Amino acid sequence: MRDYELVLVIDPGLSGADRKKQVNQAQKIVEDAKGKVKKKSEWGQMELAYPIKKKTLGYYFLLEIGLPSGILKKIRDQLILKDKIIRYLLVKKE
How confident is the model at residue 69, as a pLDDT? Predict the structure, then answer.
């Protein structure tokens, strides 16, 4: 199992409960793929470097996860379908 960091940028117009719901759905995607969420961090609302879907702000979350090899494409395919997650970044930890 390899360690990864998953950064989620969530629509800032959502309520706090809806933001948590989006993070929990991303966590479920990881767990359904036989992965493990080791740590969750809430970074808060920040300005985006450039507009995404006509939004200039985003709400950031960091998930430190462990995933088996060969499962990244499945995770990416499911995250891209979430319309309230306006951007994500999944990188391998060193």
Answer: 83
